[in-house]
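WP5 quarterly update. Target: SET domain-containing protein. Source organism: Aegilops tauschii subsp. strangulata. Length: 114 aa.
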Amino acid sequence: KRAGSDMNMPSLHAENDSEAPPAPEYCIDAGSIGSFARFINHSCNPNLFVQCVLTNHHDVKLAKVMLFAADTILPLQELCYDYGYVLNSVVSPDGKIVKLPCCCGAPDCRKRLY
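Structure tokens (predicted):
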């Protein structure tokens, strides 16, 4: 769970609908299944960026998550992107902030993934 997560997702309800449920937070978990992209690691200085793309529809809940080159990527260079966590944004079920060290090795590494 991410602390204070408020998604800026377009509402599927009327603008003034006070009974509209809050937008859900989505998480992509490639722990047990996924494409080769599940092996792309985090970096604080990434060479890829993430973009959600709509194809043949306008339903934001069905957007495809795609990775694009942020710069020229040389052969055999590791592919990586910024996972986008905000520091102190992950909390355990008991409400304590979870901290995970970052080991990306970038010169400007933030030293923590979250």
